[in-house]
Structure formats: C-alpha cells, structure tokens
Write a structure and sequence with these properties.
Layout (H helix, E strand, L loop, with lengths): L9 H22 L7 H14 L2 H13 L9 H13 L3 H13 L5 H14 L2 H14 L5 H9 L7 H14 L6 H11 L9 H12 L7 H8 L7 H11 L7 H13 L3 H12 L7 H9 L5 H15 L6 H14 L4 H11 L4 H10 L5 H10 L6 H17 L3 H9 L7 H12 L5 H16 L6 H10 L5 H11 L8 H14 L2 H12 L8 H14 L2 H11 L11 H24 L3 H12 L11 H11 L7 H11 L5 H13 L3 H9 L9 H14 L2 H22 L17 H13 L5 H13 L7 H13 L3 H13 L7 H16 L12 H8 L5 H8 L1 H21 L5 H16 L18 H13 L3 H14 L5 H13 L3 H15 L6 H5 L2 H9 L13
C-alpha cells in the first residue's frame, strides 16, 4: 500500500544515521570536556546536530565553539547559517529573526543568511519582513538570488497578497534578471489560485506555458493541479492534450486526470469527464486496467458521472485487459450511487469470469435487499478457482474484509453460502468480527452456536479464535466455558494461557472477582498454564472494580509466591520475577485506590521501597509482607530515600506504581504529599499529563486555586525539561514530549477552580482560556468555554457569555454539547429578563432556532443518543424563550415559534433527515409543554382557531396533553365562545390531573376556572368519586 511519506533511499538513511551517531558522540564528549575540535569539525558538528537532532543541539554546539580555549575557534557565517537553517526547519520564526539580528550585530550576514530568513518568512507568511529583507539586501549591496524571491513570494500565499507577489516577480525578472525555478512558479501560482472568479483565468495557464517553453522547466504535479483548477470545463481536454504532446512527465500523472474529471463533473460535463479518462488511457503505449486503478480510487463523482465512468471502463477493458480488483472498485463506485445496478454488473463479471469473493461481498453490501438471493445463487454456482485450499483462502479474505468493516450480516451470508466447508480460521475470523462489536445477548448466542458447529465438525479452534470467542460470551458463562475447555481437551495444557487471560479480562471488566479467583485457581491445577504475575494483576483489578478490598488482600498474600521461579539462583529469572511483582503491587495499590484505603496503599508503596531483605527465595514473600505491615506502622520514609534503597536491592517501583499512588493521594486530599512525591521522581521515571490532571482535579474539589497554579507551573517545567532532554536523543515516539504538554483537561480543571473562586473574575478565566487556545497541539472542547460562560452568568454578564459561545463556534470551530447549549439558553433568558436599554439591539430568536436545527452542530442527534428526554427538554427550553420575550419585552413572534414547531415535527416524521438519522428508536422532540407555549402565543395574538388546531395536531401525532395544553385549549375555546366544549375540556383536565396538580394561576387564565375558584365547590362527575 502506498503512503504519503517521503521515500528515503537506503544510502541516504545510512548517512543520516552515521551523522546522528557522530553528533551525539561529539556532543557527549564536549559536555565531559574530553575533546577539542577544529573549525571544520565544529562546522560539521553544528550541521549534523541541527539536521539530525534539534536546533537546541546545534546552538549547544555553537556555545561550545565560543567557549573553547585551546584551540580557540570563532563561529563563522557558515556556522551561524547552519543554526539559522535548523531553526527555520522547525518553524521557529521568532528565534530565526533574533538570531539573524545577532548575526547582523557581528557583521556575519551574507546572501545565504538572507535566503534562510526569507524562507522562514515564506513559511510563516511574514510579508512585511520579507519586503524589508529584500530592501535591506539592496541597501547593503548583497546580491539577491532566486531563493530570496522564492521565500518572499511564498510569504504572500497565506494572505493571498497578489499585488505584492507580482511586484516580487517583476523585480526578479527585470531588475535582477534571474531565471525563476519550479518552486518560484509554484508559489506564484498558489497566490493567484485564490483570486476571484471575475479575474482573468488565462494568466495561470500563460505562466505555466512560459515555465515550459521559455525556461525549459519540468512542471510538478502541484503546478499542474493549480492551473487545471483555474481552467473552464471546455479548456480541460485541449490542455491535457498539450501536456501529452509536449512529452511532459505530468502528462502521465493519474492525479492530474482525476482532478480534471472532477472539474468537468462539477460543471455538469459528464462527457468531458469520460473524455479525460479516455485520454489518460491513451497517454502511454500499452495502458492496462491496473494502470487505471489509481485514477479510479481518487474519483468521487456525481451519480451521472460515476455511471458514465463505470460503463466506459467496463466496455473498454473487459475483453482486452481484465483485472478483477479494478472491476471490484467499479462495483463499489456504482454501489455508492446506483445500488440497483450493482447486481447487473456482478452478473456481467460472473459471465466473463472476472469475479471473486470480494465481488460478491461488494454486491451484498451495496446491492438492494431484494437482489441478495440472486447474488447468493450466483455465489453457489460460480467456480472461483481450482483447489479447495485456494477457495477457502479467498472466502476467508472476504470474511475478514467484512469483519473489519463491522458488516457481520454480510459476513454471515458469505459464511453460509461458502462453496466449500469452512475451516477453523473461518470461524476464528467470525469470532474476531463479533468481538469488535458492543456485546449483546444476541451476539453471545450466535457465537456459541458457531462454536457448537465447530465441535460437531471436529475442528480445533485457533488460539486467536478462542481468545475472541471468550470475549463474546455472557460474563457469567465465561468460567464454565473455560472449565469445559480444560475437561474436554485431551491434553489440558493445550489450552493456551492467553485464552485464560482473555477470560480473566472479561471478569475484570464486569467486576466478577469470584470467577476471576476461581479461574486463577483452576490454572494452578494445570501444568503449563500456571498463573503468572500478569494473571495476579488482572485478578486484583477485578477485585478493584468490584470494590472487594479484603478479597484482594487475601488473594495477594496467599498467591503472590505462585509466580516465582523455582530456581532463584540464576540472575535473569530472579530479575524478571521481581519486575513482575512490581506490576502486582501496582494492581494492589489500584485496589486500595478504588476502595479508599489510603493507609494500606501507603504500606504497599513504601513497603516495596523500604525492603532491605535480599530476595533470594521469593516463596517467602507473603511473610515479608506481614513483616512490613508491622514494621511500617512506626516508620514511613521519604520516597526519595526509599528509591535509593530500592536500587540497592533491585526492586524499583515503576511509573505505574507512582502514578496510581499519586492519584490516590490526590483523591484523598493529600495534595501536598502527592505534589512532593511527584517533584521527587527520579529522572528515569516518566509521567504523563494525566497525573498532573489528577492533582488539578483534587485542587478543584478542595477549591485550592493557588495550589492549582503551582501544579500547572510544575507541569510546564516538567514538559520543558523533557523537551530539552529529548533534544539530545534520537527521536522516539514513545518518549515524545507531547505526553507531558497541558491538554484540554488540564485547562478545564484550572478553569473550574477559578469558577469556584470568588477572588477571580471573568477576565482571569478568559485570559486562561486564551492561553489554552494559543497552545499548539490542544484541540479545544466545549467544556472550557462552558465554564467561562457559567462564570459570566454568575457575574451577571449574560451578553458576555453569549459572546464566548459565539467565539467557540466561529473562531475555534468547536462543536457545542448539550450542557454548553443549555448555558447559552440561560444567557438568552437572562438577557430577555433584564430591563431593556436604549443600546440594546432588537432580539431575534432565529439565531437560536436555526442553531438547533443546523445539522452541522448535531445538537438534537447527540441529545437523542444520550437520552430521549434530553432532546425534548432542550426543545422546551427554546420555546420558553419565546414565552419570556412575550412577557418581558411584549414582543410576540408567534410566526417564528410556529415555524420552529413545524420544522421539529417534520424532523420527527422524516427518519432520513439529519441529524436524527442516528437515532435507532422512535424519537419525540416536541412534547405537550412545548405545544402549550405555541398555543399561548397564538391565544395572545388573537388566533384562537389556530390554537385549537394545535390540539387536533397533538391528537393526530399521539402526543399526551399536559395541564398547560388543557388551559390554553380552554382559553381558545372560550375566545370562540364554545362554552360547552370548554367545560368538557375542564372536566377532562380534572379527571387526568386532579385538583392538586393545577395551580391557581393556571385556573385563573380561563373563565370556567375563575368561576370554579369563586364558588369553591366541585361539580358532579358521572364517573368516579368526587375529589376531596
């Protein structure tokens, strides 16, 4: 599979590795003052360090160069240029500028220095500085190169500054008389690509022609794509033909033709898209179908365009150059736009002998349900290949493709209609596919039925198949199933330990601690499947999830020696056993954390740290633990001192040990102790940001804002220190400094602390929010913005809260969640309830209703996913804004409310409409209280007939009546002088809700209700006893 990564030759990689080792070795020797280098050696070291390590390493080498006494060497322009280049390569534009200015003070600038600075301006879009640098080169008499203008023109791309780009271009050609390169042309075309459609569309094509004919340049793919997207549809084919006639390399690039087909298809020129593909097929002497496959994979055309392309490819290549994978791509393309025509194409492939199992899979996936019997019949009669093994392999490949896509219904059909009997691998693939899905009882039944069929066919399941099968069973059935495996196997040790660990993992997830302990005891009885320390860790974690502290400690004391080696004399097994025991202690500390046993966790943590006794025989470990329980009652040492003794005895807590114990201290309120332990960690122990977030969460609970800021400062220092240490090492993804950078959870805890602090204002929270949004690598969520909005409401600044919400959507493109939108609605309500001011703009609730209905934000979809009532409550909150506006501002926008109601009911009726498509069950967005708001607005607007019609609509939709809807119905009936119907509605309301659930204010809105209150008597009912 092709990737987008740049291909590096083996020779270049070897040279880079050699340079890396050379730079690391010399830097280490310089740090230890073991070597003195010459001028050339320093220049080479700075170059290698900046290219293979980091710019900080290059600057460190530069500092060594300046401080070396014997022999004394001075950095040259070449040395500084190398450092400048490494800074520019890393995008550190501000440091590039400061270093450039320092070079200027030393009078070490040359053309190369200006070129590097201009290149940095180009990547950062700094047009103003690029213009000043070019002017400064003229003033100093330094000759400008093509690279100088390349960076200057590139700087115009982000701002689309075409005027300045043309000035740079003309100065380069006329004043300096320099010949442009491909990169300069590409940057200029990138600037021109953003011009308005009303501008001249031929300028880019003229530039492209000038690059090819005048300067004899070979255009790149990017150049060609920029020009192609600017051409009208009727000019595409002649332009592509000219590429072919000139013999240019891009004339054979399939990406160019795919882009041309997209442009033609978007303008409705389907024939033009097909002609572009036909031209590509004739671009090389012998074009085979596999050559067309990369172009087809790039296409995303309209239905008409897709159908035309599929028909053209099939007719052209089905006889001359058949290629089944390409024909399968055609099936997928056709199925995405015309599902009913998939079966026809499949039958044509079957008749010509160009189908395989993936062809039938695609037809079942994309074809309509009514065509599946015909597809399956073709599968039964089609001879895929010769040889049973080849057929099974092909079928398993198709099954695996279905399982990866979670298309288990298609996988079951393929499995049922396989032309040959499935093997154990076939069942294993099915089990793996079901294990990827969320567990249900139905999945458990299906998997168990397949396993019974395997046993009847006397097939031996694979290890991976059993592993996934166990994860699909009902949790309570896992232990009996494993017992059955042990008893039914001819050799009980033939059951892999991984299967037992898979069963233990199910017990861990569901907190089945008794089953986990029983399973570990069962493993003890089987030779070759004895429990390991990994087994003990999972059992303890199962106890932790069940909150069983006593059971976990009893298991720890009675079973920890099982994982030890029988012969402790060899050093390597002993070391391995000790390291595994630390993992068991980590799980035990997690048990203490889950059950709030801080003292026992401290005993376990410091017990591993204060153990002086040499572990020569690990079978005595339980007695050592008991000794520690007594010994540590009187003595608790500092972690730092304990760690040194750990190193002496060879048993060292891991990062997981520290992480779990620190989190436990924080959750118990011992924030100072947790922070002190975190600061005293050895340099070899690496932590991630999650530990600091746990401390910040504890600070938030304790409302300790000062401590929260200290923890945040510690985190930033630790991240900077890790970055510095990693700059002296080769890149390793597992050691990336990003794991210590503050993330959105970090700032959310900080903002929550400020929210609870009366001493901090909205401005403090907004400054912290701005700091978060400016941090690189942080993807903001709705939570930080919501916290700032709540602070604004607490400070009685609802309009500022609305501004924060708008900034979240517009500036940061963050999708709001239900909580954020509820706070937004609270801000609207506060604004409407506040006394109107002369400076207030007219209130328009269309912004709120359109936001709810906009599928881009998916507010209703996610509310339905969480809980169906959440969506209806959210809708009710919006309708209540119309009511508040009518009461406080005397503005009745009943037409807008009615339109919003109609839009919501339309969403309920249309199950294909977004964002409700994800809801799998019947959903209700509008309930009775929302209808009541609309009815009240209609009554106040003098449109009683429409209010009564709303009741008929509710009855037709099956929406239950509420007290408010009854009241508004009675108001509408009385306005129409339908007194008898109003009395009937009052009686129906009394029968449904009684008297206690109807307030005096509600009764006072109707004439019959007021009469009822005056008389203080109860009418006689035909059915049921009279209310008290």
């Amino acid at each position: 599979m092709m990737t987008s990564a740049k291909v590096i030759s083996a020779g270049r990689a070897a040279r880079a590795a050699k340079s890396l080792v050379h730079a690391q070795t010399l830097l280490n020797q310089l740090r230890l003052k073991q070597v003195a280098l010459s001028q050339d050696e320093f220049d080479k070291l700075v170059a290698d360090a900046g290219r293979t390590l980091h710019s900080s390493s290059a600057r460190e080498a530069l500092n060594f160069m300046q401080t070396q006494v014997h022999p004394a060497v001075a950095p040259s322009t070449r040395t500084y240029n190398t450092v400048l280049k490494s800074l520019s390569r890393e995008g550190r534009h501000a440091t590039v500028v400061s270093t450039f200015q320092h070079m200027d003070s030393l009078h070490l600038l040359d053309t190369r220095s200006f070129d590097i600075a201009l290149d940095s301006c180009g990547w950062q879009g700094d047009v103003a500085r690029a213009r000043l640098l070019l002017f400064d080169m003229t003033r100093r008499g330094i000759p400008r190169s093509v690279a100088s203008y390349q960076g200057a023109i590139q700087a115009c791309i982000p701002s689309h500054n075409m005027t300045q780009a043309w000035r740079f271009w003309k100065t380069m050609l006329t004043t300096d008389q320099l010949a442009p390169t491909v990169q300069v042309y590409t940057h200029l075309l990138s600037v021109l690509a953003e011009r308005d459609a009303s501008d001249d569309d031929t300028s880019m094509a003229v530039l492209f022609h000038d690059a090819v004919t005048t300067h004899r340049l070979q255009p790149t793919r990017k150049m060609a794509l920029l020009v192609l997207k600017s051409l009208p549809s009727d000019a595409l084919l002649p332009w592509l033909t000219s590429l072919k006639q000139r013999g240019l390399g891009v004339g054979l690039d399939g990406a160019i033709y795919a882009a041309a087909m997209h442009v033609a298809d978007q303008t409705g020129d389907v024939d033009g898209a097909v002609q572009c593909l036909a031209l590509y097929c004739t671009s090389r002497p012998n074009t085979l179908l596999e050559h067309v496959l990369p172009v087809l994979r790039r296409l995303h055309l309209s239905p008409r365009g897709t159908e035309a392309v599929v028909g053209f490819v099939w007719e052209r290549f089905r006889a001359s150059s058949p290629h089944t994978p390409t024909f399968n791509v055609l099936l997928g393309m056709l199925g995405s736009v015309h599902p009913k025509r998939v079966t026809t194409l499949l039958h044509a492939m079957v008749q010509s002998g160009h189908a395989d199992m993936h062809s039938f899979r695609l037809a079942l996936v994309h074809g309509p349900m009514q065509d599946r019997p015909a597809v399956l019949q073709s599968l039964e009669t089609y001879e895929l290949s010769k040889g049973r093994n080849a057929i099974v392999v092909a079928c398993n490949s198709a099954l695996h493709a279905c399982c990866l896509r979670s298309q288990m219904d298609i996988a079951e059909l393929l499995f049922e209609y396989m032309p040959v009997l499935p093997n154990a691998a076939s069942y294993g693939i099915l089990f793996k596919g079901y294990a990827r899905l969320p567990w249900t009882n139905a999945i458990s039944d299906i998997v168990r039925r397949h396993y019974d069929t395997m046993c009847q066919d006397q097939l031996t399941p694979t290890t991976s198949g059993l592993f996934c099968l166990v994860q699909c069973l009902r949790p309570r059935d896992v232990l009996p199933f494993v017992r059955t495996l042990f008893t039914s196997a001819s050799d009980m040790s033939a059951v892999p330990r991984d299967v037992c660990h898979s069963a233990l993992d199910v017990c861990r997830v569901h907190g089945l601690w008794r089953d986990a302990i029983a399973l570990s005891q069962l493993m003890v009885q089987i030779q070759g499947v004895a429990p390991t320390n990994e087994t003990h860790s999972v059992v303890l974690l199962a106890c932790a999830n069940a909150g069983q502290f006593e059971a976990a400690m009893a298991y720890l004391h009675s079973n920890i020696s099982i994982a030890t080696t029988s012969d402790p004399s060899p050093p390597s097994p002993l070391k391995h056993a000790q390291a595994s025991i630390v993992d068991v202690f980590n799980a035990a500390i997690h048990v203490c954390a889950k059950t709030n046993h801080l003292d026992e966790a401290s005993t376990l943590f410091y017990g591993t740290c204060t153990l002086h006794t040499p572990i020569a025989n690990l079978s005595s470990f339980p007695s050592i633990i008991m000794m520690l329980l007594l010994r540590l009652q009187a003595q608790m040492d500092l972690p730092s001192a304990a760690i040194y003794r750990l190193q002496d005895m060879g048993l060292t807590p891991t990062a997981t040990t520290y992480m779990r114990y620190i989190k436990l201290l924080a959750s118990a309120g011992h924030i100072d102790d947790a922070r002190r332990l975190l600061l005293d960690l050895p340099a070899s122990t690496s932590m991630d940001v999650g530990v600091y977030n746990a401390l910040l969460r504890a600070c938030c609970v304790r409302r300790d804002v000062d401590m929260a800021f200290m923890v945040l400062a510690d985190l930033k220092v630790a991240a900077a220190d890790l970055t510095t240490r990693l700059s002296h090492k080769p890149y390793n993804e597992s050691l990336s400094s990003s794991k210590l950078n503050p993330n959105v959870v970090t700032y959310s805890h900080m903002l929550h602390s400020l929210l609870q602090s009366p001493a901090h204002s909205v401005g403090d929270m907004q400054r912290l929010l701005r700091e978060m949004t400016r941090e690189e690598g942080i993807a903001p969520s709705a939570v930080p913005f919501t916290l700032v909005m709540v602070k604004c409401l607490k400070a009685d600044q609802p309009r500022q809260a609305m501004d924060v919400y708008d900034a979240m959507l517009v500036q940061h493109n963050v999708r709001p969640d239900g909580v954020a939108f509820q706070v937004y609605l609270d801000a609207w309500k506060r604004c409407l309830e506040a006394p109107p001011r002369a400076s207030d703009v007219p209130v328009d609730l269309h912004a709120v209703t359109s936001h709810v209905l906009d599928p881009q934000w998916q507010l209703l979809e996610r509310a339905l996913d969480d809980q169906q009532d959440d969506a209806s409550l959210l809708v009710l909150r919006v309708f209540q804004l119309f009511e508040v506006m009518s009461i406080t501002r005397q503005v009745n926008v009943l037409d807008d409310a009615r339109a919003f109601l109609d839009a919501l009911t339309a969403l309920e009726d249309d199950e294909q409409e977004q964002p409700i498509q994800a809801a799998k069950k019947k959903f209700v967005l509008v309930r009775g209280d929302s209808y009541a708001v609309v009815m009240r607005l209609l009554n106040e607007g003098g449109r009683a007939a429409e209010a009564m019609a709303v009741v008929d609509e509710m009855n037709a939709r099956g929406t239950a009546m509420t007290v408010e809807t009854y009241v508004e119905w009675m108001v509408a009936l009385e306005a129409a002088e339908r007194w008898s119907d109003s009395t009937d509605a009052f009686v129906a309301m009394r029968r449904a809700f009684g008297t206690a659930n109807v307030s005096v204010d509600q009764l006072s809105r109707t004439y019959i209700g007021r009469q009822f209150l005056r008389s203080n008597s109860l009418p006689t009912f035909e059915h049921g006893p009279s209310p008290p």
